[in-house]
Amino acid sequence: MNRLEEFEPLRSLLFSISYRILGSVSEAEDAVQETWLRYETSTTEPVSAKAFLSAAVTRISIDVLRSARVRRKEYVGLWFPEPLLADPYQNPERAAELADSMSMAALLLLERLSPLERAVFVLREVFDFGFPEIAAAIGRSEAACRQLAVRARRHMEAGRSRFEVDHEERERLAERFFVAFREGDVDGLRELLSADVYMVGDSGGKAPQWNPIIGPEPVARVLVAITSAFVDIGGVVQPRQINGQSGVILRDRDGKIFVTLAVEILDGQVQAIRSMINPDKLRHLGPVADAWAIVREASRARRLSGDRGH
């Protein structure tokens, strides 16, 4: 078996490791490509291709994360991970755990960790690597890795309940939410929202963005206003899994992506709605709409509708 034949079956695992460390699809793809180049040009023959490649992609991802954190301090507005519609790493036995580990809630919790803690947590808690493999991957002793794992788990525990929920219950509530959302049903939405629900977004300063909205009444009304105006100009509301959780993609009349909404559900209620409208973070999903043009067109349509109403 040549090296490419060894590498390709592991590509999805390597991407999934890197994405959880970085929270970026484009950076994870680059890390996987760099891992392949190192493997292709390596003069040593590793005992285990999986161990060699996992260690390489982890080290590369740690280095990228360190530099990315510096850049993120200058990011305009809130920074969210790039949305991912499907995890390429398929493991039916652990599908639910893997989905929860890449939810927006989980990835944002991982942002609290240092790069080394994050890498250890991902390798150990998500992908069940042994400490000898983790130690080789990050260049620390097994004892140090165990300490990093303990610290990472401690940091994550406080927020863990936010993304550990009953999946069947979540899907049932999500379906009700999407029906009310599509139909512009303010009352139906309001009863599904928690008392402290909030809606926040990531535009990166490159698209229209509302300020954080808090409370069931304002969130329900803003959601209906956005959806109604968008549908009126030919937009389509498409329920989709986003980062393994319930979500929505809004597409313009040409099928281009306007915004994604990731919905966080806990205890039978929607707790948070996170929007991604930064075009740079949506391009990997397909053609991206001109958000400014959509907002202008929707505003004109709303004004005309109001004039006719009078």
TrEMBL record:
It comes from the Bacteria. Signal peptide: none annotated. It holds the Pfam family Sigma70_r2. Residues 105-156 form the RNA polymerase sigma factor 70 region 4 type domain. The keyword Transcription regulation applies. The keyword Mitochondrion does not apply. Residues 8-69 form the RNA polymerase sigma-70 region domain. This is DNA-directed RNA polymerase sigma-70 factor. It comes from Nonomuraea cavernae.
